[in-house]
What we know:
homotetramer, alpha+beta, Butyryl-Coa Dehydrogenase, subunit A, domain 1, Butyryl-CoA Dehydrogenase, subunit A, domain 2, Butyryl-CoA Dehydrogenase, subunit A, domain 3, 3 domains, 4-stranded antiparallel β-sheet, 3-stranded mixed β-sheet, 12 helices, globular
Amino acid sequence: MSQISIGESSERASEIKNRLTAFMDEYIYPNESVYYSQVANGERWKILPLIEELKARARTAGLWNLFLPESDLGPGLTNLEYAPLCEIMGRVTWSAEVFNCSAPDTGNMEVLVRYGSPEQKEEWLAPLLAGEIRSCFAMTEPDVASSDATSIKTSIVRRGDNWIINGRKWWTSGAGDPRCRFAILLGRSSPDAPRHLQQSMIIVPLNAPGVSINRMLTLFGYDDAPHGHAEVNFENVEVPIANMILGEGRGFEIAQGRLGPGRIHHCMRLIGLAERALELMCQRVQSRVAFGRKLSEMGSIRQDIAQSRIEIEQARLLVMKAALMMDTQGNRAARQEIAMIKVVAPIMAQRIIDRAIQSHGGAGVSQDTFLAAAWAGARSLRLADGPDEVHLESIARLELKRYD
Amino acid sequence: MSQISIGESSERASEIKNRLTAFMDEYIYPNESVYYSQVANGERWKILPLIEELKARARTAGLWNLFLPESDLGPGLTNLEYAPLCEIMGRVTWSAEVFNCSAPDTGNMEVLVRYGSPEQKEEWLAPLLAGEIRSCFAMTEPDVASSDATSIKTSIVRRGDNWIINGRKWWTSGAGDPRCRFAILLGRSSPDAPRHLQQSMIIVPLNAPGVSINRMLTLFGYDDAPHGHAEVNFENVEVPIANMILGEGRGFEIAQGRLGPGRIHHCMRLIGLAERALELMCQRVQSRVAFGRKLSEMGSIRQDIAQSRIEIEQARLLVMKAALMMDTQGNRAARQEIAMIKVVAPIMAQRIIDRAIQSHGGAGVSQDTFLAAAWAGARSLRLADGPDEVHLESIARLELKRYD
Amino acid sequence: MSQISIGESSERASEIKNRLTAFMDEYIYPNESVYYSQVANGERWKILPLIEELKARARTAGLWNLFLPESDLGPGLTNLEYAPLCEIMGRVTWSAEVFNCSAPDTGNMEVLVRYGSPEQKEEWLAPLLAGEIRSCFAMTEPDVASSDATSIKTSIVRRGDNWIINGRKWWTSGAGDPRCRFAILLGRSSPDAPRHLQQSMIIVPLNAPGVSINRMLTLFGYDDAPHGHAEVNFENVEVPIANMILGEGRGFEIAQGRLGPGRIHHCMRLIGLAERALELMCQRVQSRVAFGRKLSEMGSIRQDIAQSRIEIEQARLLVMKAALMMDTQGNRAARQEIAMIKVVAPIMAQRIIDRAIQSHGGAGVSQDTFLAAAWAGARSLRLADGPDEVHLESIARLELKRYD
Amino acid sequence: MSQISIGESSERASEIKNRLTAFMDEYIYPNESVYYSQVANGERWKILPLIEELKARARTAGLWNLFLPESDLGPGLTNLEYAPLCEIMGRVTWSAEVFNCSAPDTGNMEVLVRYGSPEQKEEWLAPLLAGEIRSCFAMTEPDVASSDATSIKTSIVRRGDNWIINGRKWWTSGAGDPRCRFAILLGRSSPDAPRHLQQSMIIVPLNAPGVSINRMLTLFGYDDAPHGHAEVNFENVEVPIANMILGEGRGFEIAQGRLGPGRIHHCMRLIGLAERALELMCQRVQSRVAFGRKLSEMGSIRQDIAQSRIEIEQARLLVMKAALMMDTQGNRAARQEIAMIKVVAPIMAQRIIDRAIQSHGGAGVSQDTFLAAAWAGARSLRLADGPDEVHLESIARLELKRYD
C-alpha cells in the first residue's frame, strides 16, 4: 500500500531527522553569520574553513550522504524518507554541503553509482562520497536553447584512445570552487545516430589542458562564491576513452535517471526555504510597528501569511507524492508528478520569499537577511533543469494522452 | 504512523470504491439527461422519480450512508477512506443524494448521531438515515454578517413547555424539497450568557405554524430546484422543549462538530467536479478545430490543462491531509487544515471550471454542459460556511500564534 | 493633435452627458425594481411597458441614437465623445435600449448605415432607428469554432431571384423579443472563392418560412428575457436577392466595420458596470458590521477596493485611447487597441463584480442585487465577438510584426 | 479642457523628444557596454569618465534639467510634457543622470527651488543644477517603519547657532558617489509639536564631522556602484541654523511637495524600462529556436507578449493622467492618481521584465542583459517612497471617503 507520511515518518527516518535538527540548531544556525563573513573576506574562490570543519562533524555524526536512495553508501533512505531531511537542510542555503548532500554533486554521485564503471567509481566517486573533492555538471550552452537537449552542440569526437571535446558551456555551477576536480559533460558524440542517441556523458577533469573558465556569471547580482556559476570553454580537450559513462550515445538515458532526483531535491529544499521565509516574516510582523499597530494586525499581511501557509502545505504534499511515486513506481512513472513539482516549488518559494521581503521593507532586499539571495536562487530554478514552459508542456502532453 | 494513501486505499475502502464507480457508470452518468429533463418538466418543487428509484438501488447495493465516520449506521469509514468516494460522487452534482450522502442532510445526521437525544434520534434521525425524509439547516440570516455567528439574531425564548422562535433565515438549502421535514435552526436563546454560550440549536418541523417560505433565492440565475435555497420566516413558532439539541447555549459547541466534516465533504466533491471539468475540457480541445488546428495543439490551452492538473493534485492532497488529521487528531487539531482546504477547493474548482468553460465557447456558459451551473455552485462555496476571508483570518491567527 | 479628455469633454458631449445623467437619475435608477418585476410577471418573451414608455421620454429628450459616429441620424458624436455616455448607460444593464443604443441593434444599424442599399435602409434601418422594431445578428454556430469566422457553415445558395439559406445559428441575442423583426446573417455563399471572400451578410426576416427558434439558451442560469439568446434553425429559407448586403462574398469586409465599434461599446458599458459594482461594494462595507468592526475597516477589503479603483481607471483610459484612435486613424489602425480593450474590460469587470459579490455575502450571488447577473454578462463577453485567446493572438501578432 | 496627448505632444515637447531620441541613438545605446566596463574596472566608488563626457554633450544639446515643471531653470515642461521624455531616459537605467534628471537629485533640486532660501539656492542648488555636484536624501531609518514618517527618530536639536543631528539612516541612495556633497535629511526637531509638525528637513554637508558611511547596502546582490545605497551614521553632527529648509517642523509640508513628482518620475522611467524589456523579449523569441520552432511561435509566449503590451499601455495612460492632474489640479488633487501609478508601475515593470528574463533563459538572470538588474530596481520601487500597502491604503481611504 502506497502512502505518504504526514508529520511522522519511518522510525529510522525520524531518528535521523531528530539528529539533523539538533545538528542544525547546534552548528548551522549559530554559524550563519560566520559563513557570510568568511565568504566576504579575501579571495572569492576559496575553501571556507567553516564548511570543512562542519563537514567533519556531520560525517562523525552519521549525517552524511543521506540523499542516496537504497544504497549502502549512506543510510539508504527512500526519496520519501529523505524529503523532510532535505527540507530541513534547505532552510539554510549553504548547509546541504555540510552533509555532502549538495547539488550538483549529489546528481553526479548518483550517476556514478548507477552507471559508473568500477574504475570511474574508484577514481571519481569515492572521493566525492568522502567529500574530499567537488564536481560540476556541464550541460547548458549559451548558444542553443538547452531546454531542448537534442540541440546541445558541444562535440565529443573519438581520436585514438581519447575523446576530443570542443564546445562552450555555461551555468556550470560549482566550478568556482577550488576543490572542484571534474565535470560530467553532456555532448554530441554521435551526430548521425537517431535524435535521442546522439549525446553522451563523459567525465572531464577540470585540470585537463584546454579546459578554461571564461568568466563567472552573476545571478541577480550574486556571484554565489565560492561555489559560483561558470562559463567554461573546452578547446580540444583530450579525455581517455575510459571516461565515457555507460557508453556512447547513452547520455539521454543517464539524464533521465539523473534529473528526476535532482529536480525533486531542489524542490524539497525550496519547501524548507519557504518555511523559513514565512517564519522570518511572522517574527518580523509581530515585532514591527507602523501607524500605531503591529504589522501583524494588518489584514492584508495576515492574508499573505495565510496564503503562504496554504501554498507551502500544498507544495510539500506534492513533493511527497512525487517522492513516493519514484520510490514505488520508478522515476518514469512519476514523471508527470516530477514535472508538476518542478513547476510548483520554485514559484511557491519565490512568492513566499517575496512576501517576506515586502514585510521587511528595505532590509528585505538588502544583505541583512537571507531573503534577497534566496529569492534569486528560487527564481533561477524556474529555468535550471528546464524552464517552467517545458515542464508544463510535458504535463499537458501526458494529460491529453489519456484522451487520444 | 499517520499516513495518506495515494491512489490506493484500505481494502474495504477500495472495494467500496470499485462498487461505487461501477454504480456511477451503470446508473448515474447514463441518467444525467434524464435527471435534467425531470427537473425541467412541470412543477419545480417536486420529488424526482429518478432519484427515488436510484436511491433504492444504491441502498440495495450497500452504497448508503457512506459519510458517517466510525459508525455502525453505515460502513463506518474514516474521513480519509470516505474522501475518494465523496470525490467520485462530486463528479455529478446531484448524485450524492442517491447514496444518502448529500448536504445538508449529512451534517444534520452527524449532529443527531453525536448530540441527539434518544427521542430525537428516533423521530428525526431514523427517517433521515433511511432516506425517507430530507432536512435543512437554518443558520444564515439576511440582516447580519452571519460569518460572525455571534451576531445571529433569531430568538429562541422559553414559554412554558415550549421554545418560541422568531426570526428570518435565508440560504436554507434543501427547503424547496417537498420531502424536507425539519430544520436544525441556530438561534439566540441566552442573550445574557457569555458570547459563545448564547446560541442554541433546535429542531423545527417545517410544518409548524409560523414557519413560512418567504421566497426561493437564485444562485447566478439557478434556482437549484427541486432542492432550492429558501428564505424562511419564523414567526412565533412553538417547538417542544425536547427539540433543543444537547442543551441551551450549546449551539457553538455543536457547530464546531458539524462544520468540520461538512466543509471537507464539500471540498472532496469539488475535487471530483474539477476532475470532471478537466476531462470535459481535454475531450473538447482534442475534438475541436479552429484556424486549421485542434484546440489541443494551442500552447496557452495546453498550459491551462497543465495548471489544472497541478491545482487538482495539490488540492486533493490537502483534502486528504485534513481528513487524516481529523481521523487521527480530531477536528479541533485539524482546524488550520480544514480552513486551508475550505479556501483552496472552491477557488481551485472555480478556476478549472472556468477554463473548461472558456474552451467550450458558447456551449460552456449555456445549459449544454454541467459547467456553468457547477461554476455557480463552486462560487457559492466561497461564501457558504464562512467567506474565504474568515478562513484566511483563522489560518493567519493560528500561524502567528506560534510566534507569540 | 490627438488627445484624450479626462473628466472633461467637448462642450456638446458635456451637455449631453449632463442631460443623460439627469435622465438616469430621474427615470432609470428609480425604475430598476419596476423593470425586474415586469420581467418576472407573466410571459417571458414579451414587450415591457416600462421600456416603451422610457424610450418615448428619451427620444423626446434628445437622448436617442447617440452611438452613431459622425452621422446626422443622431447627434453624430465621435467614439471618444460617446464613451462616457455609453459608460453611464452601462451602469444599468437594460438601460441602453431606452436610448436606442443597445446591442446588437447598434451594430446592425451601423452596418445598414454604411453598407445598406437605399431600399434596405428604408425597409429595415428606418424602423430600427425609430426604435419601432428590434433586430438580431446570426453569426455563431454550434458546430464550428466560430471564433474562426472562415469556418462558418450556414449556406447561402442562389436560386432564381432568391437566396436559399440553410444552417443552424446560436447565441442569436435579442431573438426572444417579440419586436425582433429580422436578423443579419453571416453565411457561406461562395465556397469556391478565396478564404476571406466566401462569406456574405444577408437580411433575413424572422417571419420567413423555415426560420424557427429551436430553443432559448441560458447564460449561467439566466435566460435574459425578454431579450434572450436563441438557437435558430434556418431550413430552406428563401430571401429576395435584394436582401444581400453590399454584395456576395463581402461578409468579412462588413464584419471588420461592424465589430470594431460593437466591441468597444461593450467595453464602455463594462466600465460603467464596474464603477457601479464598486460603488455598491463601498456602500455595503461601510454599513455592514462583522466581528465588531465595519467591513470597510478590514485591510483585505480595503485592498480590494483600491485594486478595483486602479483597474477601472486603467481600463477606462484604454477604452478612451482606442476610441480616439478609431476616430482619428480609423478602425483598422486601432485594431491592436480594440483587441486590447476587448481582453481587458470583461476581465476587469468580472473581477470587480466578483469582489463586490464577495463583500455582499449571500446577497451577492442572489437576485437581491444586480451583481450576479452582471457578472454572468461580463463573463460571456470573454467569449462573445471572439474569445480572449483570439484577441491576445492578434495583439501578439501585431507586436511581433515590428521585429520581422 | 484637460487632455492627455497620445502618441503626439505639444510642439515644444515633440521637438525635445526628437532631439532626445537622437541623442539616445547616438550617444547612449552605443555606450552601454562602455558604461558597464567603466563600472567594472577598478575602484567601485568613483567618477565615470563616460558620464561626465555625456553630460557635457547633453547640456550643450539643450537636453538638461528637463524635469523642472514651469521653471526657467530648464525648458520648464509640464509633467505631462516631461512624461514621454522621462520614459525615453528610463530605457537605459543610468542615462537620466546624463541629462541631470536623475533621482534623488531631481527631488532635491525641486525642494530647493520651491522652499530653499536664497543662500541655500546659491550654495547648494546652483551647483546641482549645473551637474557639478550630487546629493542624496536621508530619510529612511533601519530601526523604524519609515513608511510611517511620523516614526522617524533621528533627532535635530538646537544648540546655539547650530542644529545638532544624531541618528542612523539607510537607503541613502547616491551617497556612494564621490561627487555627492550633501544630504537633505528628515529628522525630528520638535518632539512636542503635533504629530505632523515634529519633523524638519535640513541640509547636511557629507563632509561635516560626525557624518560617516557605515556600509553600502546591496539590492539583490547589486551594489549599484558608483551611485550606491548607503547606511549613514550621524553622530553629533553640527549644521548651521541657515541649513534648515523652510522652517522648523515643516518637514512634512516639504515632503508632500517632494514626493509627488519624484514618485511619478520613477513610474515614467519604469514605462520606458518595460518597453525596452518587451522589445528585447520580442527580438529574442524571434531569433531563438527550440524543439524545431521559433520561440515566438509558442502560444504561451505570444500570450505573455500580448499581456505585456496591454499592461504597458494601461500603465502609461495612468501615468499620463496623473501627470495631467498634477499639472492642472495640483499635486494634492492628484494624490489618488499618484498613489495608483506608484502601485501599478513597479509591479507592471517587474512582471514584464520577469517574462523577458524567462524568455532569455540563463542569459536573463545573468549580467548578459540589463534585465536582472532592472528587475531588482523595479522590485525595490515597490518599497521605496512607501511600500505598496501604504499606497493601496491611501487609495482605499480616498475611495471610501466618498461614501461617508
